[in-house]
Amino acid sequence: MKQFEANFDGLVGPTHNYAGLSYGNVASLNNASASSSPKQAAKQGLKKMKALTDLGMVQGVLAPQERPDIASLRRLGFSGTDANVLSLAAKQAPAIFQACCSASSMWTANAATVSPSADTSDTKIHFTPANLTNKYHRSLEPEVTGKILKATFANREHFVHHEHLPDNEHFGDEGAANHTRLCSEYGKAGLELFVYGRHAFDTSKPAPKKFPARQTLEASQAVARLHGLNDDNVVYVQQNPDLIDQGVFHNDVIAVGNRNVLFFHEQAFYQSEQALANIKQKFGKDELHFICVKTSEVSVQDAIKSYLFNTQIISLANGDMAIIAPTDCKENPAVANYLDKLVQQNTPIKHVYYHDVKQSMRNGGGPACLRLRVAMTEKEHAAVNQHTLINDAQFERLNNWVDTHYRETLHVNDLSDPQLLIESRTALDELTQILHLGSVYPFQQI
Q1: Is the pLDDT of residue 300 over 70?
Q2: Which of 126, 137, 158, 250 is catalytic?
């Protein structure tokens, strides 16, 4: 039976803005308070989705969250009409208000951890939404994310949905941004690699000193248990604490894998030699390619600025692999030079395709941040909500939807405009009909 990897990209929401909410994310902090373009951001994301479809990939879309999050603001004591809630929160607690307006759900690498049926004990695909406890603006997402995932992958014969982990820093879970899967073929049992930043219950272990480690070992272990993974097919690796302090807030900023390729910076992992030996031993006898980028070739700062490792590695129909990279990689001399040489080397990666996702990049998310990977069989593919899959007609329909509902520019000061809330809700209500999601948003259930 044919098995392949599908990508489900997050659709950028109508309130896409630069509020600098993500401490530890250098790009997010550097661009705080700049004006954004929600329309351009959404169209850049859709264009990338269509490009992958044209390359023969199965490509889906995940809906954004409702923002501003009026329900969360009311929970924090702001009352009255929706307009009053927006006005009061913006004046009395601007930081909290901005967090409740974030369009960060666009980065669906943080939406969930996914284990394919080839790996799980019940041979079903398992989803666990990430709790994202480290950042308040992201901690608002898991409940609705779970509803969107259930509406997208609704067939219980093939899909299992778990509740997100406890909302506590001890079980801080960042989803697929700290998880990758290595395998010889998508349909065969693979090795699931969980990368964590710290031990929650043992403070004597190494940890970053400046920026927070968002993923805990205990969270990774809990997800592996929920998904029914065999211990022999799981590896836990600690991220290099020094790199977290340099702005590598997720593992997917410094490493990415696909099938039998692990592409990473030499400083990515703590006790790297031991970690790589463990991965190789558990992977087994099949061929495994470690592509290690030396600091002398690409510095950590160049990797962060260009998001060299926050690229997607995909398998093409002819067996080659390709890197889907942001144009920022092409504009960075060291990174561009490295990628030019990489495709000439004896590795499965033979192509690099550049895409403009600058609206996302300025907020600290590259191509890999925008997608959730789901390895699946043809039967599982047929069980997916087909309205969430990208084809020519759906691509055109979603672009028209963006043109109708999205603003050309948005500044942080515009977030308290009551009209923006109306525009956002109108857009999302229509989107749930386009994607056949049902009532997944709080405003639809009032």
Answers
A1: yes
A2: 250
Count other Cβ atoms within 10 Å, centred on residue 395.
18
Q: Which of 7-11, 27-31, 94-98, 351-355 has the lowest mean pLDDT?
A: 27-31
pLDDT given for residue 74 in this prediction: 97
pTM: 0.96
Q: What is the pLDDT of residue 415?
A: 94
Catalytic residue among 101, 183, 329, 369: 369
Active site residue 369: yes
* Residue carrying structure tokens 């909290």: 96
Which residue in the block uniquely carries the two structure tokens 């977030």?
A: 415
Return the H-helix or E-strand segment holding 338.
helix 333-342
Q: Where are the alpha helices (DSSP H) in 284-387?
A: 300-306, 327-331, 333-342, 358-361, 378-383
Average pLDDT over residues 3-12: 96
Gap between the Cα atoms of 110 and 108, Å rounded = 5
Question: How many Å apart are CA 57 and CA 220, to the nearest integer?
Answer: 29
- 250 labelled catalytic: yes
Which domains are seen in the chain, by residue range?
A: 11-107+370-446 (3.75.10.20)
Active site residue 174: yes
